[in-house]
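Researcher: Please predict.
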Amino acid sequence: MPVRGTLEDPTREQLVRVQYADAELVADYADAYSGWGPAARYHRSRLHAVDRVLREHPGGALLDVGCGPGMMVRHLLDDRPGDFAVTGCDRSAAMVDAARRRAGKGADFSVGDIREMPFADGAFDIALAMGVLEYVDIGPALHEIARVVRPGGLVAVTMLNPRSPYRLVEWGLYWPARRMLGGLEEAFHVPRRHGARRTGIRAYAPRRLRHELWRAGLQAEDTLFYDVTALLPPFDRLVRRPDRPERTVARGIAGRLGTGYLIAARRL
């Protein structure tokens, strides 16, 4: 039987850390968000959702928690020049290096874990946590985000929507099928064309996330679903949709088709 935490049976922490540990993996991550694939579609829709939340906010000190290679930071610098004093933070030094290159001198960056960030209490007017909460223990992470935001400040967090038809098919059928096919290819010594890397993702439904926000001292104000699509994997990979992100966000019943969602909250 493999020992817990070995290469044969990695822990969730190891799965998360290894994904973006070097520059090549970081480049693959950034490349996936360009073009017309599902990841790029998701990324553009999420940017639009964030823009809608920030539309009424005049500016201020903004923290991008789990900034990755800096795509959100670059977007904010281009879309709202001069409005925000942007700081990016990520646990991966390789991600932070890529973010610095992408942002130039327009933002500050720090390497730090979301559970213990190197910032003073109430240092920011706004905190964004885009695509990071799925990879961490959500309670301590939200408490730390709340700590670094001033009272009354805005917190916007996103989460993959585990109850959407898309995610149910992707996680319950599509990725398991790819892993099975990859195993068969390896067993029969044929070139391996299938497979799916295990990621350590743990996603929560909106009701659970709102509860966790409240426990951290954050009052949820709005829930916006994005990447709304009736297409299911793998068929969504075969269809190129027009780049109209305003059509990919919704609230209410229509939002159930969103593959991800954003909750805007205020620090109490």
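Model: The longest strand covers residues 149-160.
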